[in-house]
């Protein structure tokens, strides 16, 4: 570790929410910067990339989805984990966030334990991604998110194939009944 604090950019137009999130993070030894709108967020990231971004969806000007899309499409900021913080709970909003490149979601009102668990998880992913880049891993794409979740199809464990037609697993699959 280099001795510098893990830096989180909090983007929220509600000053009370921004201060609350920043306070929780600083109590855990992280550095937290706050900005209130999309343009300030993009400018802050351009000036010096944070280690993570907590991004409100409902912002003046461009919304959080748009900010997320812009950051994820730029190679200089594509690897920064982004957690969308939103009061929106509908399925369409979550899909839009995933399509925009969000790494995770927090629903308002934010619970301390949930915030810290999500930050800790993504912080670990960021460290693993950074160490694999330092090691020169050729398999790591510069545009891949540090902790991208596997797709549903690849996350299921494959069932072992039955070696004989009389095995219980084969009998269940084929609909055959067990003999007594």
What does this protein structure show overall?
With 180 residues, the protein is of the alpha/beta class. The chain has a single domain, classed as Rossmann fold, CATH 3.40.50.2300. Helix content is 43%, strand content 13%. The chain is built from seven helices and five strands. It has helices spanning 15-27, 38-47, 64-73, 91-100, 112-134, 152-155, 168-174, and strands at 7-11, 31-35, 52-56, 82-86, 104-107. A five-stranded parallel beta sheet has the order 2-1-3-4-5, with helices on both faces. Strand 4, helix 4 and strand 5 form a beta-alpha-beta unit. Helix 3 runs parallel beside helix 4. The longest helix is centred in the last third of the chain and has 23 residues, at 112-134. The radius of gyration is 21 Å and the shape is globular. The model is unreliable at 136-146 and 149-180 (pLDDT under 50).
What is the CA-atom radius of gyration, in angstroms?
21 Å
Shape descriptor: globular
Instruction: Please trace the helix and strand order, writing H or E for each element.
Output: EHEHEHEHEHHH
Compute the average pLDDT.
79
Number of domains: 1
CATH architecture: 3-Layer(aba) Sandwich
CATH superfamily: Response regulator
Per DSSP E runs of 2 or more residues, the count of β-strands stands at 5
The major sheet is characterized as: 5 strands, parallel
Could you tell me the CATH topology label: Rossmann fold
Q: So what's the CATH class?
A: Alpha Beta
Classify the secondary structure makeup into a structural class.
alpha/beta
User: Which regions contain 5 or more consecutive residues with pLDDT less than 50?
Assistant: 136-146, 149-180
């Amino acid at each position: 570790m280099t001795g510098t604090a893990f830096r989180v950019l909090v983007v929220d137009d509600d000053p009370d929410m921004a201060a609350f999130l920043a306070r929780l993070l600083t109590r855990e030894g992280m550095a937290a910067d706050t900005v209130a709108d999309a343009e300030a967020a993009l400018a802050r990231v351009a000036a010096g990339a944070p280690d993570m971004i907590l991004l409100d969806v409902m912002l003046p000007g461009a919304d959080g989805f748009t900010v997320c899309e812009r950051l994820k499409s730029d190679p200089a900021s594509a690897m920064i984990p982004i957690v969308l913080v939103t009061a929106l709970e509908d399925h369409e909003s979550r899909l839009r966030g995933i399509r925009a490149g969000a790494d995770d979601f927090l629903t308002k009102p934010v619970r301390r334990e949930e915030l810290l668990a999500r930050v800790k998880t993504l912080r670990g992913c960021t460290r693993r991604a950074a160490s694999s880049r330092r090691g020169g891993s050729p398999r790591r794409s510069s545009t891949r998110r540090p902790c991208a979740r596997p797709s549903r199809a690849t996350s299921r464990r494959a069932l072992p194939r039955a070696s004989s037609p009389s095995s219980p697993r084969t009998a269940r699959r084929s609909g055959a009944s067990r003999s007594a």
